[in-house]
Amino acid sequence: MVDFHDLVDLCRGRRVYIQTHNFPDPDAIGSAFGLQKLLEHYDIQSEICYDGKIDKLSTSKMLEALDITMYSRQEIEPRLTEEDYIICVDSQKSGGNITDFVGNEVAAIDHHPTYVKVPYLFSDIRRVGACASIIADYYLQQGIHPERTVATALLYAIKSDTLHFSRGVTLQDIAAFSYLFPLVDKGIMMSLEMNNLEFRDLKAYGAAIENIRVYGYTGFSRIPFTCPDAMIAILSDFILSLIEVEVAVVYCQREDGLKFSVRSEREDVDAGVLVAEALKGLGNGGGHAAMAGGLIPRENQPLLGNFPDGTIQDRFLECVRAQSPEAK
Predict the structure, then answer these.
(1) I want to staple 319 with a disulfide (CB 3.0 to 4.6 A). Which of 45, 89, 103, 277 is the partner?
(2) pLDDT at 228
(3) What is the topology classification, in CATH, of domain 4-193?
C-alpha cells in the first residue's frame, strides 16, 4: 500500500499540475478534483489540465454543478515549464490517450493496466472499477472527510465508470461507495444522473443501429460522422446490451483518425488485449478487460486498404478467436 504522504512530500515547494487523459470523463474529472482538494489540505496548490474537449453534457454539467475548474491545453501550455511537476490521474504517460505536456510527470494514479513502464517518483496503479475509488481511499486513510462537492464528484465518478456498479466492480469500489454516500449532496447527484441525453445523440444511436453487423457473438458498428469519446463509449455499451452480442466494437471517423470503443462481457475475451492486438501496426489501444479504447491515426488509415470496414472486422474477429477458440 502506498503512503499518500510520499506524494505530499514530493509536491511541496513545486508548481503542481494534475493532468487527466484526453477528453476527460466523469471518473477523470472527479478523481482530479478530489486529489486537488486533498492536496489543498496540505497547503499544496494545483491546477487541473487536459487536452481535447469537454465533449458531453454529463461532464459539462458536472463541472458547473460542482464548481470544478479545468484548463485546456491551449490555456495551460503558455505557463508550463520543464521544472513543473505533473501528476497523471486516471491515465499514465505513454498510455496512448494522454498528450505529453511540457513538465515532469513525477506521479501516476490510475486504475488502467500499465502498457509502458515509467519510473515515476510516486505511483499508485490499482485494478479497481474507478480511479475515484483510489482517491476516496486516500481520504479514508488520512481520516479526512471530503467536502460535500468533492464527495459528490467522487461518488458520481465511481457510479459512472462502473456503469452503476455493474462493470468491473471491486470490494474497494463498494467500500468507497459506503464511505462517500452519507457525505454527498443528494440533490446535485440526482441532477447529474438525470437528463444527460442530448437531441443530437439520437442521430448517433440511429447510425449505430443502422450499421450494426454481428458475427457470432461479436457486434460491430461504424458511426459515419464525428462522435465525442463519451458518446462512442455509450454506444458500445448500447450494442453490448443486445442479447446476441457479448463483444462490442464501435468506431467512428474523427479529425485525428478512427476512434474505437470496445466492450466485452466474456471472461475469455479481454477488451484491452483485444483492441491492442487488433490495432497493432495501425495504431494503439488498451484498457480494462471489460472496456477499452483505441485509435488508428489518420495517416495510417490507407493501410486498411480499399475495404476498411472489412479489414477492421477481420482483424478484430481474428483476435477474438485467438482469445476464445469457440468464437465463430
Answers:
(1) 277
(2) 81
(3) inorganic pyrophosphatase (n-terminal core) (3.90.1640)
